[in-house]
From TrEMBL, chain A:
This is WD repeat-containing protein 46. Keywords: Nucleus, Phosphoprotein, Repeat, WD repeat. Residues 504-546 have a biased composition (Basic and acidic residues). The lineage of its organism: Eukaryota, Metazoa, Chordata, Craniata, Vertebrata. It comes from Cyprinus carpio. InterPro entries: BING4_C_dom (IPR012952), WD40/YVTN_repeat-like_dom_sf (IPR015943), WD40_repeat_dom_sf (IPR036322), WD40_rpt (IPR001680), WDR46/Utp7 (IPR040315). One of its GO terms (biological process) is maturation of SSU-rRNA from tricistronic rRNA transcript (SSU-rRNA, 5.8S rRNA, LSU-rRNA). Scaffold component of the nucleolar structure. Required for localization of DDX21 and NCL to the granular compartment of the nucleolus. Part of the small subunit (SSU) processome, first precursor of the small eukaryotic ribosomal subunit. During the assembly of the SSU processome in the nucleolus, many ribosome biogenesis factors, an RNA chaperone and ribosomal proteins associate with the nascent pre-rRNA and work in concert to generate RNA folding, modifications, rearrangements and cleavage as well as targeted degradation of pre-ribosomal RNA by the RNA exosome.
TrEMBL record, chain B:
GO terms for biological process: maturation of SSU-rRNA from tricistronic rRNA transcript (SSU-rRNA, 5.8S rRNA, LSU-rRNA); protein ubiquitination. The keyword Mitochondrion does not apply. This is DDB1- and CUL4-associated factor 13. PANTHER family: DDB1- AND CUL4-ASSOCIATED FACTOR 13, U3 SMALL NUCLEOLAR RNA U3 SNORNA ASSOCIATED PROTEIN. The keyword Ribonucleoprotein applies. Residues 340-426 form the Sof1-like protein domain. Coiled coil: none annotated.
Amino acid sequence: MLVFGFWTTKICNTRSTQQNRNVLFCLKKDPFPGEAPIPQKQLQKFQRGKKCKVPAGARERLKEAIAISEAMSEHAQKQAARYDLLLPEDAGFLEGDEDEDTNTISQADIADAVDITSGSKYFNLHLSQFGPYRLDYSRTGRNLLVGGKKGHVACIDWQTKDLKCEMNVMETVNDVKWLHTEAMFAVAQKRWLYIYDSKGVELHCVKKFNDVLRMQFLPYHFLLATASATGFLQYLDVSIGKEVAAICTKMGRLDVMAQNPHNAVIHLGHPNGTVSLWSPNQKESLVKMLCHRGAVRSLAVDKTGTYMVTSGLDRKLKVYDIRAFKPLHSCFLPAGASCLSLSQRGLLSAATGEIVQVYQNVLGSNPVSKPYMAHRLRGQIWGLAYCPFEDVLGIGHGEGFTSMIVPGAGEPNFDALDTNPYRSHKQRQEWEVKALLEKVQPELIGLDPGQLSKVDQASFEQRHKEQIEALGFDPLAKDKFKPKTKKKGRSSAGAIEKRKRKVAHEDQRDEIRQSVQERTEREKELKEKSNEKKLGNKSTLDRFRK
Amino acid sequence: MKVKVLCRNPDDYVRETTRDIQRVPRNYDPTLHPFEVPREYTRALNATKLERVFAKPFVASLDGHRDGISCITKHAKSLSTIISGACDGEVKVWNLPRQECLRTVQAHEGFVRGICSRFCGTSFFTVGDDKTIKQWNWEAPGYGVREEPINTILGKAVFTGIDHHQREGTFVTCGQTVDIWDEQRSSPIRSFSWGVDSFSCVRYNPVETELLASCASDRSVVLYDTRESAPLRKVLPFMTNEITLCFSLYTYDIRHLDVPVTVHMDHVSAVLDVDYSPTGREFVSASFDKTIRIFPKDKGHSREVYHTKRMQHVICVRWSADNKYVLSGSDEMNIRLWKANASEKLGLLSAREKAATHYNKKLIEKFQHHPQVRRIARHRHLPGDILKQKRELREMREARRRKEQNVRKHSKPGSVPLLTEKEKHVVAVVE
């Protein structure tokens, strides 16, 4: 032990002499001491909720627990904000020259200016036979589903132009939607809802869902929401195959539909200019907003669930704050937009007739004057959708399908554990199992998705009151006293009446005691209040106070 | 014009060979991960349910004794050896991993009242109903050699318990008096008594090694210091009717013995043995009602209850020194080995399994107050008669509480004071 100690001290001495020599040459101090600073805006992005206020009369343990959990949240927030530096990709952009307007730049020019792979993202599919086309991109953005009104349905891997399946269902196709993976898709045909495999094999014909006009898929709940021509909003759980809710909206034909990706609430637009918000748990709408003076033609909600963009027959394009239900700004379009779509980075595309216009910076308080990009097509536009994680806008129209390059539309960095466009077969299987395990139950759909993390303020009495109102009687009330029939002549009518009266007297005494207690408590409170008032500051203006 | 279109190189996102692991680029932006709270809540529900599915605490039963087990002790240095004493005087040494008995010694005629192992791990002491203290070797004797104790001490009265010092060669026994012995002497070096009939249990303080505590037959606890000549103080519990309804455990701070720090109530019959876990955060208690319960040190209710149809009244219980197992000895001649964490996976866990276990534990802790999660996490199956007894005790306590409330309502305000559960068990401390 002694020898070891001797050697360590010797080594330490040599190191310190070396350091002493170095000190003479570089008396350096770290010019940026402490942690690297993080810009406030980036920190704000990862802020989840406000800081917890320590209640006044809290015990030591509660204060400690709050302090510890706040410190951990802050640490997590900082770590996440720092990770932003490591993101591999940057968003796209398009900037014109000094006197050039970006909306005059044509798609062909852009395709020439960029590399071959990006240039091949602008293409047209000439399918003029089978009517205007609706389209849907899968969640990863790899697969595209097109459905023509006259029955043509096809799924394509649009980047490799690989045709997965193509068929004609021999019926009017109102809408097409991918389900949770590229293995299944739903087609709303003339009478019923059909579900097909990615090879085109018909898996289900759901007769309960009839006259479906529009569909929306809620990915985290595995729910397919359908709006029908008869005014029914129906939810189908695609993992167990059951109809979760069928709501009779009583608002006529439903052909304008959008989902709020932040809280899974369905927005429906109506011919009287109102937009209504629905959840599968209520028979009435959550919110009804009057948005336009004419019919609502199209709706789009952004991914954070803060802004809603609507366009109506009154040729106005309006932006609303959905959290506060307030209008932000509106602009006038010479021909009203029939289709709207919002990209992941907040670019809005509006289709009027044969022209598509893309607007930038729409979501915010400043109204927008001129479009970012524009493109003219050959047929009447019937469907618009942005491809997730790509700078591409898909347009379905009367002459087929066009894929348009919109620089800056797609989110550059995806999270591979959520949606990975480059996932392998095994990764897809693992992801599917995990997604099914954490499938959110439809009972949790509401305007505020984080409600579970908040403290339940509604007291038991309030809920009890609501229960009584709903049921018409009090389920917790005591049953009327029924005296036991006794033997040996003790259960004569007189004796039973005596027993009943005894119990009634006891109950009366209990009630009186309770009411006396309540009265004394109220008097005490009043006394305290009056005492407070007396002790409060007196001023000459007190006599005007009511 | 300046234009840049998003273009990803698949080589950066797809693995090079099938021998590589997959590439998983991450983006922690909250807008890419909606429904955080409902998804976490669903995961917490799943974690709670799986925890109940995997909760299989019973590991093994050590069979071999021919009479009820009266005491168990752990080896001071080895995790895999324990020693148990039965009511017919037999002492057996067990190997836990192989669940077999290594050695049997007929130590005493009559009950083996106490066993303790010496701190060095070479010998152990037993006391029995035949008024003797015997010291034995841990190593078994060779073939053909008879089992003989290293040392035998004859006493004047029956000894009821024994415990050994952590560092020195002294041990303490209790019976009529509390005696401190030196291993080399055959008579006690010091004797303590406080006018009590007899003592049932004595223990050294494992941290402050000069302090001892003993339980006396008049329901008091006496504290001693070996450096002094007289006992330190005596704690007398008040006798009230309430106490007959609670078969509970009381945690006291030695410095403030008047009020218990916590009252742990969940047993429905007398508690016979207690042992702390090596971390000190939990303890296990054995009760006459055929169950063993694990309590956190600061909570009033048990987090876990273990029972089997075959396990009758549990006389002694020990927590293993690696914090993973609990041993219970009952009067139907079996020692049972249980897991301290019922749903823990034994053996080597891979890094992913460990991460998943930690995540699930944290999720359950985060959502523990939500009614659905709490309902599942709290649910434990209890045998029918214990459930009935519990309900009965609850009714009796409710009746007493209602009566007290009525008395308070109809008497002069302030004459009947409001006492918390702890204050009801106030004791008198005698110096």
